[in-house]
Amino acid sequence: MSEAKKTTYQLITDRLIERMEAGVNPWRKEWTAVSSGRPRNPVTGTKYSGINRLMTGCAGFSNPLWVTFKQAKEAGGSVRKGETGTPVVYWARTEGKTDEATGETSGGWAFIKHYYVFNTDQCEGLSFSNELPAAPLPEFQRVEAAEKIAARYAGSPPVKHGGNRACYFPQADMVAMPPREAFTSEGAYYATLFHELAHSTGHRSRLNRDSLTGLASFGDHNYSKEELVAEMAASFLLGESGLAAPELIDNSAAYLASWIKVLKGDSKLALQAASAAEKAANHILGV
After folding, report:
1. Residues 219, 260 within the same domain
2. What is the Cα–Cα distance from 251 to 89, expressed in whole angstroms?
3. 178-200, pLDDT tens digit by residue?
4. 223: helix, coil or strand?
5. 261 and 149 in a common domain
6. Domain around 8
7. Sheet holding 110-119, edge to edge
8. What is the mean pLDDT of residues 133-150?
9. Do 175 and 152 sit in the same domain of this protein?
10. Residue 17: what pLDDT?
11. What is the DSSP string of 82-117?
12. 246-262 vs 268-285: helix axis angle to the nearest 10?
């Protein structure tokens, strides 16, 4: 890596740490909800809740209607070839033994099962109506320098826009993003996109980063470290694209501070994460 690039990364690292030490406002989400209703099945009327609401919400679709493969076919339509379903889960129970004398049933146990649903945007020939149309969104102005950085990412996972969540799915190797127009600014959009793309560099097929591949649960040590890496890398890429505005740096500092707090307040972790973040940013840049 050239000295100029090292200097850019180091300047941003120093600035983030400086803002954390000075104290920053709590982290703020940089996009607004654009959902056209709660995720639901228009055939059965089921409204998804719990983990099913999270899974369908993260799948990257603004349309809230979901059907099974069979339901799409029975409604006169079909799932487009090559589309991937989203799993939803439910509890089932084994049959217990019934006492012939009392009629009471005992035994049996509950277990979890799953099946797959498809967003109606993944289907053809369906006429299900969503009575809650999404509100119009403001126009989004693409930033050429940032777009070029994303385009340089060789072997990038697919990025699907829609819905209300920004996340990277390691198992599917896919990034879900809200619509571009839902973000408070163009810089906020690219900051979030770079963050999720940085996560994807840790995939086993790329940098095979322990903090991503070793994830166990939300908030555990690896999860916290991985969030530091992704946010640092996003800040580096914002710097490369000329979008490192003070308000974005402050929001990144607030995000980093929140995770460092989880990691027992060790501010040195930001410097440690910067090394892994540098590798992630360089991977995206093709350096």
Report:
1. yes
2. 36
3. 889 889 889 999 999 999 999 99
4. helix
5. yes
6. 3-32+139-285
7. 66-67, 110-119, 86-93
8. 80
9. yes
10. 73
11. T---EEEEEEEE---EEPTTT--EE---EEEEEEEE
12. 120
What's the predicted TM-score (pTM) here? 0.64
Calpha distance 190→144 (Å, rounded)? 11
160 & 271 share domain:
yes
Q: Provide CB contacts within 8 A for 270, sequence distance 6+.
A: 13, 16, 17, 20, 228, 232, 256, 260
Same domain, 204 and 239: yes
Burial 214-253 (b: 16+ CB within 10 A, else e): ebeeeeeebbbbbbbbbbbbbbbbbbbbebbeeebbbbbb
Judge whether 27 lies within some domain.
yes
Please say if the pLDDT value at position 37 is more than 90. no
| Residues in CB range of 271: below 8 A, 6 or more apart | 13, 17
Burial group, residue 165, by CB count within 10 angstroms (0-12, 13-18, 19+):
middle
Residue 103's contacts (CB-CB under 8 Å, 6 or more residues apart) are none
β pairing state of 159-161 and 174-177: parallel
Q: Is residue 195 one of the residues assigned to a domain?
A: yes
98 and 204 together in one domain: no
Residues 186 and 272 occupy one common structural domain:
yes
